[in-house]
Structures
1.
Amino acid sequence: MLLSVFIKRTMRKLAGIAPTNFLRVLALRLAGYHIGKEVWIGQGLIIIDDNMGGEKLYIGDRVAIAPRVTVILQSYPNNSRIREIVPTCNGDIVIGADAWIGAGVIIKPDIKIGQASVVGAGSIVTKSVAEGTIVVGNPARYLRSITTESELEMATKLDEEFEGDGEIALVD
């Protein structure tokens, strides 16, 4: 058990500093987290996980996570005297397929971010996010839906016109 905890912590730390996306994704998979296909993880990802509670991180296919995102699976006051009166926060985090997590986002425990959702840069996610929505702010609040028929058609058209070098084009 001690060896598995050491490996998980080491791989988690490596994922935060690895110079390429391939190495970041590989390190997170080796740490035991579920990472889907074609996932992009920016540099500086922080996962707060004490390895003792059994909480899980699930990242779906084609998720984009920008730099300096913090994912909190557990939080408690450690050795502080208030530990007796302040509840521990812990829980799984699920990020659905095709979601986009902006730079500097903080995701608290026990959160589900729905498929094809966007969390704006700098947001603090304290409640689950519905599929196909954009949330922003502190705490993250619903901004609008992104699943209208015209937006889906525009995305499909852009995808067909794009001659893929792996980059994402944003249209305003």
2.
Amino acid sequence: MKTNRLVSALSRATDSAVGGIRIIKLPPTRMAASGDNDLEEFDAWWSKVDKERTDQFFPRDFMWFDKESKKLVWSCALTSGSTDTEGYDIVDFPGGLYAAAISRDQDDEDGERVYAAIKKWVRESGVFALDERPGHYAMFHVITPDEAYRAMGFRQLDIYVPVKIAQK
């Protein structure tokens, strides 16, 4: 019951007048990326690196589907001075504006619904335009801490769609 009420509340929030959509700006940065490596191996490395952080105020890791290589890529922003990526690719993340909203993790139908809602909201906003292009993809990040996951029974997923200010 608790899970169904939470899912219903999440759905209503995403369907509200603003669509539960927020605009954020991510800065350009260097990132380590999984590249051709196994995602589980990258997860083990990234989890170890993330535990060494002294701040936990914002996410540093994101995933996206790379349309050119046709595979899922996981990346994490490197802290200044980071040099040892244990062989993982270093990529220059361009940063930029993103429209973001929450979906239910591991629920592809909900993820597709939220992704479509974000894109529709952007198209109808009159203020923003989609900015998806090679190397600048929609991304996602699991945002639920373990204790909330245990209480809710599922994790939440932030979906980020790149946008730019629309030409007038």
